[in-house]
What does this fold into?
Amino acid sequence: MKNYRVLFIALAAMVCHSASALDRPEITFKVFQFPPNMIPCIDGKTNDWDIVPEDYVIHTDQLVDDTGQHTNADPKNLDIRVRVGWVKGLNRLYFLYEAYDDYWDFSLPGLHNDTFEVAVDGDASGGPFIDHGHPDVWKPAFVGPEMSVFDPRLNPAEDHWSFHGVHAQNYHIFTPAKDKDWCMAWDSATWIKELPWANVACAYDFKPGESGRLVLEFWITPFDYAGPESPQRAVESVLYENKIIGLSFAVIDYDSVTNALNNGFWNLSRKHTMYGNASQLCAFKLMPLEPKFQKPIEAQWSWKVVDMDRRLVAFKDLSVGKVTSWKWDFGDGETSTDQNPIHAYKQARNASVVILDIEGPAGKSRRSKVWDVQLK
It folds into this structure.
């Protein structure tokens, strides 16, 4: 009996793991970290992105047309370049989408529009995230029979608001957007496409039906929770170095206003329904700064009150480079050589200068904070 229990637990763990696995396990795409003094300006120009190495660029030949209309990409018909970036300390994902198309279709006011569709799951939690993917209300083919139990007590209309785009988001971006919003946020929280949660700029010089090159530059904010009630209840996905997020995109290419069918659904994921299932997105890694942007040594630190009644403060070393020694001056006559000390102040402090001095093979560095550490 014990062996059966162990086997059951192991199988359950495998099922849970596979349910949250991301598509294309053979590759992890990279998200470039911009230095804080080189954040891209959203102006529809590409020069801010010249610092991004070529191995960060995703090309057309890495996509698959899962409609089956095209075996291989033809750059004379459609040719794209996509770069994704982030900035440490900001919960934003930056995108530069460059595309050549032999026929740009954007004259109609509805969904029939050449489109760059982006789906993002900021904490890689996985699972369906559009209303008809709810496991207890709908029965879509891609969810699976084990998750398709209909519960008559649930209301599909209410489910849309409680589930649709809440833990992952879909941006149906019109390329270009003519006389309409830059995208359809395919979520119950449609406010995610507005400032201060997103921004966009687009540059092109062609008319509907013509060929040409388009530049789309934008940033979005991924959310772990984005409900319809108000942005005040939303929870942004926290972005940090080496974090894996779920992300994919598709290019929907229309070549005729009279034909409702598209001329290709070019998908980075190998699963067409990635647009509504976060487990079918690809893995993207938030990369550290490239070596040429890193300082050889730089002192930096943060602090947090652990216990206000005891005036207990935890200090955390955030220094850059190889550090061999630390010296803290807490501003009250006490010091420490620990890397991450915890210090108890004997009296209230609201005018302390706290200093961290570090040393390493590359030299020395100091970082002081003036009157930051305040205690009652």
In short: Confidence is low (pLDDT under 50) at residues 1-19, 139-148. The chain has two domains: 21-130+165-286, 295-370. The chain has two helices and 24 strands.
